[in-house]
Design goal:
single chain; 419 residues; alpha+beta; Triger factor/SurA peptide-binding fold; 3 domains; 5-stranded antiparallel β-sheet; 4-stranded antiparallel β-sheet
Amino acid sequence: MWIKLFLFFSLCFGLTPIDGVLAVVEKEVILKSDVLQQSYLLASQKNIDPYRSPVLFEELFDDVLQQMIDNLVLFDLAVKDTNVVVLDQEIEENLRLELERRVGLAGSVSGLEQMLGEPLSLIRSKLRVEIKKSMQTELYTSSLVQSVSPSVLDVRSFYESYKDSLPLLEKRFSFSVFEWPVFVGVLKKEKAFSFLRSLKDSVVLNVSSFHSLATTFSEDEGSAKNGGSLGYTLRGSLVPEYESVAYSLEKGEVSEPFLSPFGCHVVLLEDRVGEKIKSSHILKKLTNDEKDFVAASDSLFLFLKEQNVYNNVERFDSLCSHFNKKRAVFQGVFWNFPESGLPDFLSVISSLGLGFSDFFINENKIYVVRLFNVSLPEKQTLQNNYESIYNFTRSMLIEDKIVGLINKHKQKIYLEIFY
């Protein structure tokens, strides 16, 4: 109890709490500072102000401590399972992503250091250990849940127990949607390519530096202020079109202009370290105008007419399922799709009658939709939502299995809580 009171007064009056051991699980120690760090981060995500809501923060602190204990119990089980192996490369990638997430929450690196009261090097070091443990634990639990497969009786039992607390199924739509690209005119592309070639020539002839040209002319706002630099990046972290060109260059070489989903680029390869490259680029975006959209609409109309889709809806659905699917953003046949899950640009479906919609535009695509069924809100049953109820049942069985393993293992290992 005294720890809780001390934490309360520390938070309210800005005192610096003395660190101490809150729990021991086998050889692993949970420090008060570690629990506080996780609690502050979680409080930030939940918009809980520790100073204004100390009781809520105390409850969150208790939950974090218990979760950390359970995680260490699971980790001990994972360590003893010789089938669980985590690769260093995977740890480093997850570390990078988690640091970026935390810096984003704090607003900056200095903000994160100030929030946690530690330099970035120490935060990184401690986080690497946490991530390795987390990944080992996740691999172990994944191996456990693979065998969990509810029977029909399990699903029925779950449904009978929880049917009155299951939320209503919201309004749902069954529809097929077809996507058609809007291409930038050839003259517009040629103009962009010609401009970028002239910039490359200026660099090659030492008339201008690549970075100064990128600062002046690149339309990638994020990198232009840094002279077009994207810094060091791992293979697979940039779009394929960019990497295909960048990785083919020699150090110091400038590419010919090329296209990516973002527009036209020229790239300077500055350095290469193993699978990492340091590159800079100049981007000229290609934007569609009214003529491009009119031309795309005309070509879509002719295509659908040739396919006779308005007299053969099965043909239309087949096109939605298979035509140019790899390049499509949102295309296919969707059954009982919840209204809340519709992308904003498909909100038009809510006001459609059954049948085909008119063409409509979203970004650089033209869409046409066939709505073939609308289901109004209703109570969940095994008949209308068996798959979701099955998944709920499986989640419950998985949780029961993991909690059971944790509680059973707690009886076999050294575990002490000083809180």
